[in-house]
Design brief:
alpha/beta, 2 domains, 4-stranded mixed beta sheet, 4 helices, 6 strands, globular
């Protein structure tokens, strides 16, 4: 299941957003060759992979819209439309901490609480901002974790794209049972 407020857009409008964001990402990555591997022509080696992934999501959305399977949900943090413990795992990729300059620590705490409400385990990657800085996640977690029944750890990961993004946050509720998750009907 994927959650994004953009999923409320029509297919043509969503394509415009995807194309705009992909171009912004391409320019951002190209300006940072020390962090993103490039080919002999100077292009980011994963650009085509990201383009294909975006096309696959758009194609999947076109198929899903008439069926209303619910694998793409128009919603946003810090309030998700799912029952408590609906999923075994929630992933936040390139959102939380990435925009720490725009989203407050209160927003991050609320978002983490909400992800932990709907999932047994939460993983957040990367822990760097889009400004090439380590995200200021320490105060956020220091205020949230003690005595909250949450186990947290930072794990080292092998970056797939940004060579500077080597850390992922893993959170889990202590003593909560496993839950079922996945897309309804598929």
């Amino acid at each position: 299941m994927s959650v994004d407020p953009c999923f409320a857009l029509s297919a043509p409008d969503l394509r415009i957003v995807v194309e705009r964001d992909r171009e912004l990402a391409r320019r951002w990555v190209t300006a940072r060759p020390q962090r993103f591997p490039v080919d002999s022509g100077g292009s980011w080696i994963q650009h085509d992979e990201w383009r294909c992934a975006a096309e696959n999501v758009l194609a999947d959305l076109r198929l899903e819209m008439p069926r209303r399977r619910g694998c793409y949900v128009a919603a946003s943090l810090p309030r998700l439309p799912f029952r408590d413990g609906a999923f075994a795992l929630a992933l936040s990729g390139h959102f939380l901490f990435t925009y720490a300059d725009r989203l407050s620590s209160a927003f991050h705490r609320a978002a983490l609480r909400e992800l932990l409400r709907v999932a047994e385990e939460v993983r957040v990657y990367p822990l760097r901002t889009h400004l090439d800085e380590s995200a200021a996640w320490h105060p956020c977690l220091a205020e949230y974790l003690p005595g909250s029944g949450v186990r947290g750890q930072i794990v080292v990961v092998q970056p797939q794209s940004d060579q500077a993004d080597r850390h992922m946050l893993m959170l889990s509720r202590v003593g909560r049972g496993r839950s079922a998750g996945g897309c309804p009907g598929g």
